[in-house]
Amino acid sequence: MSQDARLERLLDFLRRSPTPWHATAHLAERLEAAGYRRLLETDAWQLSPGERVYVTRNDSSLVALQLPRERLQALRLVGAHTDSPGLRLKPCPAQYSTGWLQLGVEVYGGALLAPWFDRDLGLAGRVHLRHADGRIEGVLLDVDRPVAIIPSLAIHLDREVNNGRALNAQTQMAPVFLQGGEQPDFERLLKRWIAEQHGLEDVELLDFELALRDMQSPALVGVDAELIASARLDNLLSCFIGLEALLESDGRQGAVLVANDHEEVGSASACGAQGPFLGDVLRRVSDQLGEAGEEGFIRLIQSSRLISCDNAHALHPSFPDKHDAAHGPLLNGGPVIKVNASQRYATNSATAALFRELCRAVEVPVQSFVTRADMGCGSTIGPITATELGLPTLDVGLPQWAMHSIRETAGARDVEYLTRVLTAFFDCSELL
């Protein structure tokens, strides 16, 4: 598989996935093109050995399963998340100030706010509407042109700005949207964009979940194109690589890709890692293709392994003191095993040994990350999924800069490294 072709697919996926709903739709599109059959949770499932299926929940989370050709005894799972920090519109977003219609926003997740200023912003998300015949439908919307901006205050009016100041998301982050506009203008524009994208004219807007999106395209950066710069690398990068590995695997083993929504806000939702989505799917699969009942499910879970993939903090050349001296992962230095004694990451020596052995087998360099002992540590879906299901779990990720910024940076060569390892994981006949 050409590395250049893979990177082009990655850039296209990032460009077309401004929200978790779009990301899930494009994952599903590629799965169906590869022969995966969609299941609905409301249907009775009829599964066959060797079959490839997927299921979504809330249109923003997805579980894809490559069922083993023999009896189901163990699963190789790769987990990631579809959501990213950012700015989402409030239900009644219209705000008026000095002749401008602005959009009221709330911060989703732990976003870096300063990089959102002076950016060309589009609008994307999910809209629910009622047709003339009373039918209610949800549609995706992606206004992929600049329609808003959050202008900075000139330095002449705030001479202390470069000395650091707090940003107030309620009073200072409302993007400028339309000169002289009012609330009906916002609704009129939404209807117009829906008509343009879906050909739907006679509809009533019922509700929406919309977010601002950066209009700068993903790009390969650097003299030798050694970097990837894009919005939402955390964690669409892992979603993409997990899918690539699943599609390239040999199909003999039981393999699962799970992409949960709501990781950036704690995962406590029906489709988040703390919710029942993955467990619901695996129990139904276990009952049909494995040993039925709770004991059979527990035996399946304890024979399986989960690699939770979520990006890691790369060593920053301007801030080397922010890392432990022995644990500073480098861009293009290979995937990173993430460790935390307080279980903010789910890695233990047994699961780390499995990953190191896989890296050795496919000749991929591997790195380690532990946060400084005097700094706090983030978390992932790994510890949450392990807690909910009891799955032996490992946390890994590709190193990146500017995590939670509107534009993040990762290493281009690392994409191939992690894809190679995860493919080997899906293909391995025995799990340690």
Automatic annotation (TrEMBL):
The keyword Metal-binding applies. One of its GO terms (biological process) is proteolysis. Gene3D superfamilies: Aminopeptidase i, Domain 2, Zn peptidases. It is an enzyme of class 3 (hydrolase). InterPro entries: Peptidase_M18, Peptidase_M18_dom2. Transmembrane segments: none annotated. GO terms for molecular function: aminopeptidase activity; metallopeptidase activity; zinc ion binding. Belongs to the peptidase M18 family. This is M18 family aminopeptidase. It comes from Halomonas ventosae.
